[in-house]
Amino acid sequence: MLIADPIELEIFKSLFHSIAEEMGAALNRTAFSPNINERRDYSCAVFDAAGEAIAMGDHMPVHLGSMPMSVRAAIDALFLAPGDVAMLNDPFCGGTHLPDITLVAPVFVRKQKSEARPARLRPVKSAKDGSQLQPVFWKPDFFVASRAHHADIGGAYAGSMGPCREIYQEGLRIPPVHIVKHGELQRDVLALLLNNVRTPQEREGDLNAQLAACHTGAERLRQLCGRYSLPRVQRAAAELLDYSENMMRAFLRRVPRGVYRAEDFLDDDGVSHNPVKIQVAIHVDGDVPRRPSGKHRPVVKVDFTGSDAQVEGSINAVEAITYSACFYVFRCLLAEDVPATAGLMRPVRVVAPSGTVVNAHPPAAVAGGNVETSQRIVDVLLRALAQAIPERIPAGSSGTMNNLTIGGIDPRNGHPFAYYETIAGGMGARPGKDGVSAVHTHMTNSWNTPVEALEYAYPFRVTEYSIRRSTEAAERSPHANVYRGGKGIVREIELLTDADVTVLADRRKRGPYGLGGAADGEPGKTQIVRRDGSREELPGKVSRRLRRGERIRIESPGGGSLVCRK
């Protein structure tokens, strides 16, 4: 077996990564909505011919770890010829939740016999006729994909993030379909989508931005192959997959063998008041000899058996989300310069029992699974790993994305609007360091919407935006070093028109956990501030109609503290 040249490997790692980053830059520059061009709620990635991720942009972890399932769903469902682009958002077919629309484009480097027709026909067996002709396209050399959170995808609630009880209430569900075929935009598919959303012009602009991102990625891959040759580039991609796998295995060999268990709870599902349990057992078995096929067996099994059954509310996570959270956690255990490829998860087996809150099946509502349950899955994984490698693991971070959506009619132009925002919180204390305040953590990596951009785009006024004053104090001991969790954020918005306000948040009843006997983080709080100054406390998952002059106030949770024994 040839040993990869480490210098060439590093060069190609940077080249592939730069393509994913440039795709993100193109999407960011050309998008219409503040949610994408200001908050940067999008992700882009590059895949090999088999649909394995070989590079990811520095974008949203919750998108990136699950995106390969969307690529696989598109490959399995459609013939993707030159000039084609697939679109999907179905959470039960590789997606995450309905607002996240993914575009998948094949990249053909080798010259095709025909760009509009199948390259050849092959006979395939049919149960009725014995055989029939099936079109076979040249196999794409790569794939590129862009995913963006659209501020509205229809459904019962403006912003498509409401407290629904089944997925049909959450918005338009799109299986893998062609949005572009042979280079031509499929106007009928686009019209079907735009006629089912509240802000069609904004949605069309954002979809065009995603198409531009995919086009950018495809062109850069062709240029890369033109410079270095297709075989060399494909060999480098395969070597990067193996290198990522080897780096993960090398790290896992240093983790003490054993079974590490933890559990944590979501406050409720927004329908009942019962907490929702997520439970994990991480089995670290150590490395094992190669099989006759030359492949390693997994070193680690991540088993979510014991987690609660899927619930009536919208916090159910699909399998792609659970896998994405595991990908994120194990990626964070490695050095920053290790390439984020599909090879990282080859030593890790994820067991997510079907029908549970970590692997729900239709018609479960799933909008909150992507944003809230994903965070709690990360919390549970880190809590379990803290038993094995405490020197690497932080205390619990805010544990919620504090999703805020507001929709109504803009009095300035008479058009519907849909605003979506996630609000940062406190980071958990780290071994040897305090947590960072007012920062997005774990599965979210978005920015905020600047006050100026928000007030320009929507009929709102921001009356307060500040770091929250914490009332919690970490326990002190003469025999320990105590590090404090970061503080949350106060975000208060006054409405300048009547509007529907929806909050999908967690960590309202119990704060993020501390480690080593240190204090938990401060729970979050949601309030309506009336025009007379009176306040109404709201649950974490709620939708209300607010009148002009009223304010929605969100105080996000702080991070847990941590004790390092001397």
Overview of this protein structure:
Helix content is about 25%, strand content about 25%. The protein starts with 5 loop residues before the first helix and ends with a strand. The chain has about 575 residues and is α+β, with helices and mostly antiparallel strands. Strand 12, helix 8 and strand 13 form a beta-alpha-beta unit.
- Contiguous low-pLDDT stretches (5 residues minimum) are 114-127, 129-134, 289-294
In DSSP terms, counting alpha (H) and pi (I) runs of 4 or more, how many helices?
10
Task: Kindly provide the radius of gyration, computed on alpha-carbon positions and rounded to a whole number of angstroms.
Answer: 24 Å
Which bin fits the share of residues in helices? Answer: 25-40%
Q: Give the N-to-C terminal Cα separation.
A: 48 Å
Tally of extended strands?
Answer: 24
Content of β-strand: 15-25%
Spatial order of the strands forming the largest sheet: 2-1-7-4-3-8-9
> By helix and strand content, what is the structural category?
alpha+beta
- What is the molecular shape? globular
Q: Mean pLDDT, as a whole number? A: 91
| Major sheet details | 7 strands, antiparallel
